Structure prediction request, 302 residues.
Amino acid sequence: MWANALLYVTVVLIWGSTWLSIKYQVNEVDALQAVLYRFALAAVLTQLIMLISKRWQAYDWRLHVRFMALGFFLFSVNYYLFYIATDLGVTTGLLAVVFSLLTAMNMLNARLFFGQRADAFMLTGMLMGLLGISLVFHQDIIKLWRGEASAVGLWLGIGATYLASLGNMVSRRLQQAKIDVLNANGWGMTYGAVLLFVMALFAPAPFSFATSASFIFNWIYLAVFGSIVAFWSYLTLLGRVGSDRAAYSALVFPVVALWFSWWFEGFVWTLEVIAGVLLILLGNLVITKRLPWPQQWRFKGS
Prediction:
């Protein structure tokens, strides 16, 4: 239990901070190239870790097809769409709202691909979390509704989130086949980086690389912590507790993103934001069944 809790906290803290780093990246380099540099470094480092730790393994072509699918859905195109949305000026807060849909999408896809039904705890906790997210980012949602913000970035974010959910399903299938998470991620990131490189070759923007301290720091942080550490933690958690409960981190890490926005962007805490944060945390307790429910209140099947 404590190991799963540590994985969960790691995912929430790291991914809660990466949105700001992505914003700094696309300010200096073309979005496609920024994603390419991130996963190219992550792929090289992961392959080295596998070799040094003697965990590198050879797989048949059927598994490599799955690794390619993992790279497409989880380590390349989905992030490129998020980077484009950020480059279009969509606020990191609104993108966090969009990505919080991962919980619902994982529940849907787990039903479609694995026949897994969501229990009442999951559904109640998810709805509480989504309501909390809506309270936290209601101003961004209102701007979008009024047409004051571009809807293009929103749809790109929704598409990126669904691709990520499909990547979650591929990872779950690989873990069911007893494929080591580090190996699956290493090959997935490698194929993702290759795909991004091919896309960059045909893109109109010439290759460039920023050498500022800010770019280098965020590049390394996103590759090492945002990609290698966080993805290993998240996908390991997914294999242990299921895609729906693991995806609840998508409802919690926007709260961490708020703290970073408060420190670096002057975000203002209001009563609505505080209420939303409390609702998200309460939803987390519900979905993990940590509340002391009276027997007569317990959901059927609990």
Q: What stands out?
A: The first helix runs from residue 2 to 26. Confidence is low (pLDDT under 50) at residues 291-302.
